[in-house]
Amino acid sequence: MVLIHGQPSDWKSYINRTATIKDCMSYCVTLSTCVAVYVEKNAKNCWVFQVGQIQKLKETLSIQGHKIAMKVEQTTTCAKSFNSNSMTGSVTTATSYLSYKIHQGTDGRWIFTTTQVLECPDNYRLFTRPKGLWCIGVISVNLCISGDDSATKCAATGGVLSGLQTMEETNYIYGLGQAALKKDPTYNKFGYWVNGRRKSSCMPPAQRSASCNGVNEFTYTDPLLSAYDGYQFATNEPNGIVAQSTTSNCLNILFGKTVLFGVDDNGCTHPNEETELCYKGYVCGVKPSAPA
């Protein structure tokens, strides 16, 4: 955070906390929606401003004793004078991303300007990946659904079956899917289709090898997927090569009422496996977009 002598000059509201400026700055760092904190001279409380609550601030003389700190990620320019600099920051929530710029206006006051707002579709959650921001939706259906139909339905909404970058993503999907399974007494297991289709070079009569072993047996079309930590396979899976199956070409997350079995390879055209397992939905991924 950048700490200066100053005070807010245009604001809507704030959160009042009993804290020193140092403690308040530490709190702001942990609060994703916080953009600035302010303490008046000799005050024992601080004002915490969240995004949208403060529009302008002004510098003051050090003798006045007022202090204000702004959460920033970088300076976009590096001038000899602080007043010539501009700074940027961002706020990420479970469903949205907002970036802002702090720059000096013609009246000498510092202005908070929103530069970008991105949102996930309803009921999707935002994840931050090394390649960018990714929204994941766990889509449950009334009847069992095949992998091919899942991919088609996801594409119709502008998305693609999501990959599993991290175990955080996998556990998020599992939590929502398991809740659905507990409400359905018909099946003991559910599967949700995810990104991954078997390579032609890893189909029978190919044998398991260094180039056909686990994650690398499949190709992935998730555009922001750069790691595969969330692809923790179920015991003895994927087994398409071992079983010499000509149909086990798509991937799903498989779980029971109390346990996450892991990722499994099964037939892309199969909506269910007899009466034991139902492919109850799919995991759709899209990039967040500007609100309409």
TrEMBL record:
It holds the Pfam family PAN_3. Signal peptide: none annotated. SUPFAM superfamilies: C-type lectin-like. Residues 1-112 form the PAN-3 domain. InterPro entries: C-type_lectin-like/link_sf (IPR016186), CTDL_fold (IPR016187), PAN-3_domain (IPR006583). It comes from the Eukaryota. This is PAN-3 domain-containing protein. It comes from Caenorhabditis remanei.
